[in-house]
Design goal:
283 residues, four-stranded antiparallel sheet, 7 helices, 36% helix
Length: 283
């Protein structure tokens, strides 16, 4: 009798913890991955039956048809969790770059220009290089020869030392970055000079500074090259981004996911800092 009571108590405890854990895990992006797993666990637990047969206790549980696909369900949950973890790490790294950009702005009165140039106007090094001191990478910055282009023998040798903030977690250490600005008419990095927050007449919170492009758009982090911004087709330069969308760093330092379903005119408004367009519908 006591053993039967214990078995029934364990079932009740399991049901309680399943509900509690489900409430914690089924939130955010990973919810869709774990939902089938919790549904399967809940269905199995709900069907547990305990009975006493003289000197033994029998605990029986149903075998839902979905158990045949348990490996598939688990793999989907794990893959979803991994994607979510990677995305959270990418967001953190973009936020670090956002803090560095604002530190640079405090020191210089503007964000960095897209590239430094020589006396003839030829681009030398990316804004990402000149942001290094604000990222806490002063020693690496001092190693660059600022009067030489990014692909000079000396500067090219520094390519593998890509700072963590510029790396994609799933492709760390290859010297390429997916963190880029859009360069074109009206974009914050569209001119040769650095842009001041005073120029953000649309509002810093309504203007995208940087984006995470698709893997096919990754470039050497020191190269003075970014993504082309076409006002008529503002998403054209982003490359093959994820199905859900792409991460964007705004002028106020926050990072958001921009859905691929966004209307071109709304995206164009977010990518320009002084166009006077509405980014949200009037109330």
């Amino acid at each position: 009798v006591r053993l039967e009571e214990l078995a029934q108590g364990y079932r009740g405890t399991a049901a309680f913890f399943l509900t509690a854990v489900q409430g914690q895990w089924l939130r955010g992006e990973e919810a869709k991955g774990y939902a089938p797993l919790f549904a399967l666990a809940g269905e199995t637990l709900a069907g547990v039956r305990t009975r006493r047969e003289v000197r033994q206790v029998v605990v029986e549980a149903p075998a839902p048809a979905e158990l045949e696909n348990l490996g598939e369900v688990l793999n989907y949950a794990v893959a979803t969790a991994h994607r979510s973890q990677m995305r959270q790490e990418r967001v953190k790294r973009m936020q670090l770059v956002g803090l560095a950009l604002h530190d640079y702005h405090v020191q210089h009165g503007s964000f960095p220009p897209p590239a430094s140039r020589d006396a003839a106007g030829r681009p030398l090094l990316s804004w990402r290089v000149h942001l290094l001191p604000s990222l806490g990478e002063e020693e690496l910055y001092r190693q660059f020869r600022l009067d030489e282009p990014w692909n000079s023998p000396h500067n090219r040798a520094l390519l593998p030392q890509i700072p963590l903030a510029y790396q994609s977690p799933e492709a760390a250490g290859d010297g390429r970055t997916r963190l880029a600005a859009l360069v074109g008419p009206g974009a914050p990095f569209g001119g040769r000079a650095g842009t001041s927050l005073r120029d953000f007449t649309d509002g810093a919170s309504e203007t995208i500074l940087l984006v995470e492009c698709g893997p096919d758009g990754a470039i050497p982090w020191t190269q003075p090259d970014d993504l082309p911004f076409d006002p008529q087709d503002p998403a054209a330069g982003l490359g093959s981004v994820e199905k859900e969308g792409f991460l964007a760093l705004f002028g106020d330092g926050r990072v958001e996911m921009i859905r691929t379903a966004i209307a071109p005119e709304a995206l164009r408004a977010l990518l320009t800092h002084g166009g006077g367009e509405r980014t949200t519908p009037p109330e």
